[in-house]
Specification:
Helices cover about 35% and strands about 30% of the residues. Helix 6 crosses helix 11 and helix 7 packs across helix 8. By secondary structure, the chain is of the alpha+beta class. A hairpin with a 2-residue loop joins strand 2 and strand 3. It is globular.
Amino acid sequence: MKIKEVISKEDWRGFLKLPWQVYKGNPYWVPPLIEDEKFRLDTKKNPFYHHAQLKCFIAIKEGKVLGRIAGIIDENYINTHNEKTGFFGFFECLPDYESAEALLSAVRDWLKKRGIRYLMGPFSPSINDTCGLLIEGFDKMPCFMMPYNPPYYIEFVERFGMEKTMDLLAYETKTEQNKAISRISSLVERLRKKYPDVKIRNVNLKRVDEEIKTIRNIFNNAWERNWGFTPLTDEEMKSIAKRLKPLIVPDLVSIGEYKGEPFGLILFLPDYNQVFKHINGSLFPFGWLKFLWYTRKIDRIRGLLLGVKHKYQGTGLVSFLFYKSWQKVLKRGQYKYVELSWALENNLPVLRSTRLLNPTLTKVYRIYKMEI
């Protein structure tokens, strides 16, 4: 068995196709879109790599790819947290610890040579994309843009010497017949009287450049004190918007304004994993037809983002924003379930708000860290 840096087209083919071997026969795994995976790893096209480095490796034995991994150095993270931390991500491996150990060692050594002190992950490639190792909830299909992995990854990572640094929690609840929403309605009426100039509006995709600036401003302000936060650049936000625009349902993305100033954001996305499950990684030649057909059958959405700027936190306006957005979800009638993911285990205000909905904790994802 040897570790090889991913360079050639054949290397990349093995890197991208490995998950189909790892998850063969697994009813809960959702094949990723190959083109999207390529973009996330493309150091020329993905603006994340304007401030980050990437090095990919594969483990090969007798011509067969046994595992893959990426090492990532994000200068924005290092500058934000003043800590020399690098990441591992895009990790997949057949049930062979020797391969996993060699891959993790390759990333550790690559980072160490570049003056990095800590190894953390998985981030694929950052906390603003897909992150975390699933440690609870293996008998459920992951929601859109959330990871999935075999249980033995936990043993591999911990055996290598990595330890828990943070858990990310995913909750699920029904959209209808939620008594908590009814209780919030009386609070919303009081808030309306206190803040008569508050307005909740849909995102306007016809003014996408202006909306991108507004959303980025809210995001970088509302989340900057959270664990692991890394600010999004203007280029990154434009890239995310371009990728998600075909998937966004405008009345499921709400922006709160008070006296004309945007104060908060809530983003629900249909669970497109219920669609991608049937596409097997490609929209061509017939994947688009399946996409259009199965999109109509989606019955779950993901609450991806909910936040308000610092100056408005504690005012109750987050409840107003959530309530009005939830009403729009109910009005559509299509979505029966919502996954609220993810929430940091130490973000007590968010957890308290989430638990008001009487949800079920369905999945736990873990971020690991070690000194190198």
